[in-house]
Design a protein that fits this description.
Blueprint lengths: L4 H6 L1 H19 L5 H9 L1 H17 L2 E3 L4 E3 L1 H20 L1 H4 L6 H20 L3 H19 L5 H32 L4 H11 L12 H21 L7 H8 L2 H26 L4 H23 L5 H23 L8 H31 L10 H4 L1 H15 L5 H15 L3 H27 L12 H19 L2 H12 L4
Antiparallel strand pairs: 1-2
């Protein structure tokens, strides 16, 4: 029952990231040019990218495979997120080259921590039992605690402590929920949970036709698991950490949390609730619909009052999580019509990564020069740096959901999934929230182009940052007018989740 070479092959993208992180730390010990380690990190991502593409070919030919005695599953769904996370990492490191220089002589440690957290996120998307879910989640979370506090300022350390405490609390709640699910079903395997659910209603029936104990245990497990994952998703009422951590953390770390971390969290939520708890869909479909409506509303309404661009993007991330929860809520009500809700969430995650990264990359370039995160400091940016202002404005237009951007197409697919699942009221709430979001997104655009600059100095960015911004912005535009290719990939990935 030992490990096999096949097991190592199936986790080769994660192993490549871990080896790359260790290699960067060791190289830092012998190299005088500290900036070289970042170049090694960016170039080294070609290895996990190639490994993930190789696994996609293997799965396409032979179907999903299990690794480590069933603890991990390698299917198109998991590989979709491996590719997405590697892409996010590459662009993030490219755009942050100048920003990371301020961490000298600890640049290698910063890059290594990001890579290790990304390895945990990849494993989380492939986790096939409750224990693997928890271990992967902790592997992804613990490096982020150090990353949030990496700048060592008072605000950064405060954000790191807050993230550590709330992350630990959410992990405890999640583990408690898993304990209820295991106690009610007798298994930790995700694929074995759903077949056990129909038998629970016959366990220990209560007198007078009251709710059977087994069903109550499953319901409580679902609620506690949702609360635990709600922290990672920035879902109301577990979103209180998001704006504070986004404001205090280094901007590249905030971008990592907003994209890669959120993507992996949605991956395991989709796998758990669709594959493992489909039999209890009546218990969680309405719950997610209500949470989606509340989350997007709170995020958008509170964002209006923000004066700091990073805090605003934090509340924007909360609202965007609410939009994606529409797709999660639509899954339970599809009645066998196909995983339309999953497809819409996967497509939106890909588009959201592009438009959110474009926004964060522009903010990184601007604040790295000005040192000011306030929205009013963006005044006159259209004249001081026309290209940076254009990238940020285009990303904000996409986040609003205005055509012809990927944000519009993504919301269209999500709302279509809601209507198809008889959740038209939720689609209406989403449309109304998109209108509300236009107020603060377009407020930033108005400040950049109509406000008077506080100083005449022009703002530029290094070549690597322009490359990252160009790729992200191109993604926003191309996916807005030609969404078919990403939708096809999302459909293939979603199809692998069908029991």
């Amino acid at each position: 029952m030992g490990l096999s070479a096949r097991d190592l092959l199936l986790v080769s993208p994660e192993l490549a990231l871990v080896v790359l992180a260790v290699a960067i730390v060791l190289l830092d010990l012998v190299l005088d040019r500290k900036g070289f380690v970042l170049a090694v990190g960016i170039a080294g991502l070609a290895v996990p990218l190639a490994a993930a593409l190789g696994l996609w070919a293997i799965v396409a030919d032979g179907g999903p495979e299990m690794a480590f005695h069933g603890a991990l599953v390698v299917d198109a769904f998991a590989i979709f997120f491996k590719l997405l996370i590697v892409g996010i990492l590459g662009l993030l490191l490219l755009s942050s080259a100048e920003y990371i220089e301020r961490f000298s002589p600890h640049q290698a440690e910063f890059v290594a921590l990001v890579l290790l957290s990304a390895a945990g996120l990849m494993l989380l998307a492939a986790a096939a039992d409750l224990i693997a879910v928890f271990v992967s989640l902790e592997l992804a979370s613990l490096p982020v605690v150090a990353l949030v506090a990496f700048s060592k300022s008072g605000r950064s350390i405060e954000a790191g402590i807050k993230y550590l405490l709330l992350s630990g609390l959410s992990s405890a709640v999640l583990l408690y929920g898993f304990a209820f699910l295991y106690g009610a079903t007798g298994t930790v395997r995700l694929v074995a949970l759903d077949p056990a659910l129909p038998t629970i209603a016959t366990m220990l029936p209560a007198a007078g036709g009251a709710l059977p104990f087994g069903s109550f245990a499953v319901l409580l497990g679902v609620v506690l698991a949702t609360a635990g994952f709600g922290f990672k998703l920035s879902m109301v009422p577990f979103q209180m950490w998001t704006p504070d951590v986004y404001e205090g953390a280094p901007t590249p770390v905030a971008a990592f949390l907003a994209t890669a971390s959120k993507a992996a969290a949605f991956a395991i939520v989709l796998r758990l609730f669709y594959t493992a708890l489909g039999g209890a869909s009546a218990d969680w479909s309405v719950m997610f619909a209500v949470l989606a409506a509340v989350t997007m509303t709170v995020g958008n309404v509170v964002a209006i009052a923000q004066s700091n661009v990073k805090r605003l993007l934090g509340y924007s991330a909360i609202a965007q999580a609410g939009y994606m929860l529409i797709g999660v809520a639509a899954i339970a009500s599809e009645g066998g019509s196909g995983p339309l809700g999953i497809e819409s969430v996967l497509f939106y995650l890909g588009g959201y990564a592009a438009m959110n990264l474009a926004a964060f990359f522009a903010v990184i370039a601007i604040t790295n020069t000005t040192g000011d995160d306030r929205i009013e400091a963006l005044a006159g940016m259209g004249r001081r740096s026309p290209l940076l202002a254009l990238v940020l404005a285009f990303a904000l237009i996409s986040l609003t959901g205005i055509p012809p951007t990927v944000g519009f197409m993504g919301k269209l697919f999500l709302f279509n999934a809601a209507v198809s699942a008889d959740l038209a009221w939720l689609a209406v709430v989403g449309v109304l929230n998109s209108v509300v979001s236009a107020y603060y997104y377009m407020g930033i655009v108005r400040t950049m182009y109509l406000g008077e600059p506080t100083e005449p100095r022009r703002i530029g960015a290094p070549v690597t940052a322009w490359v990252a911004m160009g790729v992200a912005t191109a993604g926003v535009a191309v996916l807005g007018v030609w969404p078919a290719w990403l939708l096809d990939i999302a459909r293939t990935a979603a199809g692998s989740l069908v029991p």
